[in-house]
Design goal:
By secondary structure, the protein is mostly helical. It is built from 9 helices and no strands. α4 packs parallel to α7, α5 runs antiparallel to α7 (100-126) and α7 crosses α8 (135-155). The model is unreliable at 183-189 (pLDDT under 50).
Length: 189
């Protein structure tokens, strides 16, 4: 992750990483098998760290909306070339050629984000903080919105900075979850 942050993925080769950590590229290849596996394991490690923060949101203090906002803040990249998101994009691009095991591991990463968001939404609905929506469907749509905006931030698309993205997402949440909002309390998402 340090190499990705400092030099970007284009300079992350097995040889360069080996030099950085004091190993030969052959030794790295022995342990990981391929650069794809090395990148996927690095993403899993990074996601483990984010997962711990995300789980704290589930049980944390504050309203469901405050915790959903915290989830969004954790999800959206910090800036152009965010190392975690750069890695995520690279792994997802390479995943076209993954075997079933690697695809299952990749799906587990996405599934954890989804389940945690569904739980936050369901809690907000049950407490009357959010209007009655299908939490699974709403979570799928919100994550698609977050993914699209996050890709724009991480690649540095003009006009897509983090603050603007967060404002768009907050508006989407206000429109979609406000009690008495579009469709009223019994409306569907």
């Amino acid at each position: 992750m340090v190499m990705i942050a400092e030099h970007g993925l284009e300079k992350l080769t097995m040889a360069a990483l080996g030099r950085e950590v004091g190993m030969s590229s052959g030794h790295l290849a022995y342990h990981f098998g391929s650069k794809d596996e090395l990148l996927l394991r690095t993403l899993e490690w990074s996601e483990g760290r984010l997962g711990a923060e995300r789980r704290e949101l589930l049980v944390g203090d504050g309203s469901a909306r405050e915790r959903v906002d915290g989830y969004v803040d954790l999800y959206v990249p910090g800036a152009h070339r965010d190392p975690h998101w750069s890695l995520w994009l690279e792994v997802f691009n390479r995943s076209q050629n993954f075997d079933d095991d690697a695809r299952t591991r990749q799906a587990a990463i996405e599934g954890a984000w989804h389940r945690d968001l569904v739980a936050l939404l369901a809690e907000g609905i049950s407490r009357g903080e959010f209007r009655a929506v299908d939490p699974d469907r709403f979570a799928a749509r919100l994550r698609a919105l977050l993914d699209g905006f996050s890709i724009q931030v991480v690649i540095g698309l003009r006009g897509a900075d983090r603050a603007e993205v967060l404002a768009h997402v907050r508006e989407f949440l206000d429109d979609g979850l406000a009690v008495g909002g579009p469709g009223g309390i019994s409306g569907s998402a």
